[in-house]
Description:
Elements: H1 3-17, E1 19-21, H2 22-29, H3 33-45, E2 49-52, E3 55-58, H4 68-73, H5 76-87, E4 95-98, H6 102-111, E5 118-121, H7 124-130, E6 137-140, E7 144-146, E8 151-153, H8 155-161, E9 166-171, E10 175-177, E11 181-184, H9 187-198, E12 200-206, E13 218-221, E14 228-231, H10 238-243, E15 248-251
Parallel strand pairs: 4-5, 4-9, 5-6, 9-12, 12-14, 14-15
Antiparallel strand pairs: 1-3, 2-3, 7-8, 10-11, 11-13
Helix pairs in contact: 2-3, 5-6, 6-7, 8-9
Amino acid sequence: MKQTKRQIYILEYIRVNGEVLTKDLAQKLNVSTMTITRDLKALADNGAVQLTYGGAMSCEMSTSEYPMALKEEANTDGKKRIATHCKQLVKPGSSVFIETGTTTLAVAKEIFRTENCTFYTNSLLALNALSKFSGIALHTIPGRYRELSQGFLGPQAIEYVKDFQFDIAFVGTEGIDLDLGITLPNEADAYTKKAVIQQAKQVIIVADHSKFGLTHLHKAAELEKIDLIVTDLSDEAPIFKAIANITDIVSVANLSH
């Protein structure tokens, strides 16, 4: 089992059981205790778990979110397919907002060469990726930095975007539910996304299949407020078909990139 999948398994195990012993994980995953110790330390360094004597336990910020480093390595093919499709959605000369997240990061890497666009972002990942290229009109927004989001959120960010009307916004999420809509585990993240959604003429939610059917405490938007959802979820999935009755949704599951 690769390191990323192993660490995701560990987080899921701790989420269910509350805590775990290193020796037990080593037996379950058929790896050395040294390997598990390194995994737990990496997760603790990202704020996902709290180390204990002989193991680890859950902490507040691990209850609903994975560290961004893990998310970035998960389902890279699906995110690439989503991003490739999004490339055709951006018209030359557009003002584009790129929200936090690893799927939105993949989108940013695909769309940045669209002619005469102006890009705005609160994502440190997107900012770092796009700032390497010359000739891009790139702006960041103020806000309080959140490690798990790898971006700038909160009252400053919300107040700042109120003065803009973006042509198109690409927004990620931690959960998409038929009844509860777009939800996030973190309040500042949800309210910042809500503000961006309100200030965009066209709102595109980009989310891989793992986000569907999940709900979290804080709502960013009803599905009716979303113009389009782009996902690698199969268009045969019951929740895909149900959402299609509420808003536009496109599957890239069978597309090559």
